[in-house]
Amino acid sequence: GTAYCRHCHRQQGSGSGSGSGSGSGSARPEPLEPSLLRFLVCPLSKRPLRYEEATNELINEELGIAYPIIDGIPNMVPEAARRTHKKPPAEGSEQP
Amino acid sequence: VRLCRCRCRALLSRPAGAVRERRGLAAGPEMHFGFQTVTEEERREKIYQVFENVAKKYDVMNDSMTLGIHRVWKDILMHKMNPCPGTLLLDVAGGTGDIAFRFINYVRSVRQRQLQRKLKHHQNLSWQEIFESYQKNKFNSLGDSQVVVCDINREMLKVGKQKAQHLGYSEGLSWVLGNAEELPFDDDKFDVYTIAFGIRNVTRIDLALQEAYRVLKPGGRFLCLEFSHVSNPLLSRLYDLYSFQVIPVLGEVIAGDWRSYQYLVESIRQFPPQEELKAMIEDAGFFKVDYENLNFGIVAIHSGFKL
Asked: What domains, with CATH codes, occur in chain A?
């Protein structure tokens, strides 16, 4: 089964698409407030982020991590970030 | 497959594993959660849970516990801030938006008065000038003021966002999920930083204060509204009685959650008193640090400037 992490509302292990959670209805994910991009940086490195519209994430290229935007609210805690490695992980190797 | 970096899991896998070591944190220094002794990790967990549980009833409980007086405290905070249009505010631990909405109302009314004064002097605008005013949105109601609400708890932010929609607040308002100890904002960005009834729940207050200093512009103001210590002995006794006998009961009756409100009243007792908090704020680099007691010290507003 899939474990549910309360803090970042992510489903583990299922490999399903975006983490927005709602199965019903198409709903393009709520866009990020554009003015926020002026202020937001990575909480770890305090370096600028790139907004990736395709996955609705804020990406720190240097550290290779992406912060999700859920319901229009950017989730800027390191625990919620995912690694953006190009190489796909071996099957099952990243299961907790 | 996405790696879920849950805080409950190995923190060493974080890229910032080194950061934790630099902070000199052992596996679990003892801290207080109300009157209990817990590790730092447990404390964060428990506090997150408290606010997750109370989020939907947060406003109702505030009104019941303080007999509506919390509204006055927050109004006083806003008057003390006295923001002018164009101010950039960061409201940390601002969950349900009370401070943010007040800010918007305040700058809107200041802006109104500004525009009225302006119009009095511009009674005979040419058509060209009128046309231009519509183009440039010269009469924008907030005067470019902006407030960013930052909170670590998703449930509180959800409630805040819904309230905003319900009350019709949209312009100049944004919501970010973030940690006061590790803010996702660039240096020297904000004119004012507020934290109302939130700093008590932060695990590393010194870090939060340092972050507050970092994100403020030079000349920026730090404002903290928080429960504090009552020095008058008689009043203190009555306050204790009310806190420990009435509030948890209200919590159970209204929110169905006695424990969370028990935590609340205990955490108030554990929080540093006025002078100690003042010293901590000074340690973070702020100048002209001062505080104002409200209701004999039940609540205090601390203020400091980044110079």
From this structure: 34-83 (2.20.25.10)
